[in-house]
Amino acid sequence: MHLRSVVGTVELVVWQGKDSRDGHWGCPIREWWGLKGHQQMSPAMEERLGFTATLAGSYADAARLASKWGCEVDDSVIHALVQRLGSEAEVQTQERLKQVAQESQPQRRAAELAAVMMDGVHVRVRVRGWGKKKTRKERAECTN
Question: How far apart are CA 18 and CA 34, in angstroms?
Answer without folding.
Answer: 18
